[in-house]
């Protein structure tokens, strides 16, 4: 059964494999940590940075919460929630990031991660969350619409990984 959990050292190897897969396949819709940075000390080394992000203590970065999706002993994917709607969120990364290990895609995990992630979002004082989805990413757009996403608009966007592209912006009301 899929669960969203706080980052946990026992899943670091699975997390690294997932990051490696995404980098090897050059998946540009979502770019996880560079796997080359993940060594034996990575989890402890980065813990306070993630804790500070949750408290909004990293200058220039939105408040964000990071979850890992696991099924039993297996690392499946991740979920990120940003709880403020500043410029970078509205025109770039959106309130939510989610993804699934390539070898585990197409089994319903992506839908379940977003569904459970929205339950987590409801624990915050938020009326709605914004999903920013590359117009070409029909799978993510389909999942978002299935879970209540209302298309606000399509706007031109740019980032290092996706280049120039058209971005769909969806609201999901909580
Ligand atoms: C998007 C992503 C999370 C989906 O994960 P997944 O585990 O494959 O998703 P699911 O198995 O829950 O659902 C896939 C859905 O897409 C549908 N689908 C598959 N191919 C499709 C196509 N060509 N057109 C439209 N829908 C399609 C499936 O039928 C399924 O929908 P259904 O359950 O209503 O039948 C995964 O592809 C991923 O990690 N992609 C890279 C990162 C990413 O894009 N993240 C989102 C950034 S906004």
Automatic annotation (TrEMBL):
Signal sequence, renumbered to the chain: none
InterPro entries per UniProt: Acyl_CoA_acyltransferase (IPR016181), GNAT_dom (IPR000182)
Domain N-acetyltransferase: 25-174
PANTHER family found in the cross-reference section: ACETYLTRANSFERASE
UniProt name for this protein: GNAT family N-acetyltransferase
Source organism: Clostridium rhizosphaerae
Organism classification: Bacteria, Bacillati, Bacillota, Clostridia, Eubacteriales
